[in-house]
Amino acid sequence: MKSYRKELWFETIKRREYINITRDVEQCLYESRIKEGLLLCNAMHITASVFINDDESGLHHDFEVWLEKLAPEKPHSQYKHNGFEDNGDAHLKRSVMGREVVVAVTNGKLDLGPWEQIFYGEFDGKRRKRVLVKIIGE
To answer: Is residue 131 a contact partner of residue 49, using CB atoms and an 8 Å limit?
Structure first.
């Protein structure tokens, strides 16, 4: 069995962003030369997420509106976590959107369904953060 590991680094311009990382992950799979196995892709920061969904701008807007209703950023004073930081909402948003995805690798390709894309979700941005890609298989 082979194993491959790579870190992808991101630095967002805004506090919250959704970045399609499917091509980056496909590049990792290509580099790994693994044809059959499993690919794990996870955010290495507690205020970021990796998830699978459709790459449609209206949906991304809907995520933003929905998450802001669930865990509004302001007022910062509403979160007991916010003492030295102001990112209590980002922790909650990450909990809802999830930490990682696992995708089957079949014939050297990501075995995704129609319209499925892999996204990095940033909820407390404007600084460098990383995503881990780990692939195991043959």
So the answer is: no
Cβ(67)–Cβ(93) under 8 Å? yes
Which two three-digit tokens encode residue 88?
């209590």
Bridge partners (DSSP) of residue 9 are 130
Q: Environment class of residue 58 by beta-carbon count within 10 Å: exposed (0-12), middle (13-18) or buried (19+)?
A: exposed
Q: What is the pTM of this model?
A: 0.95
46-67 pLDDT tens trace: 999 999 999 999 999 999 999 9
List, in order of start, the domains of the chain with CATH numbers: 2-137 (2.60.120.460)
Q: How many CB atoms lie within 10 A of CB 7?
A: 10
Structure tokens at 58: 């209206």
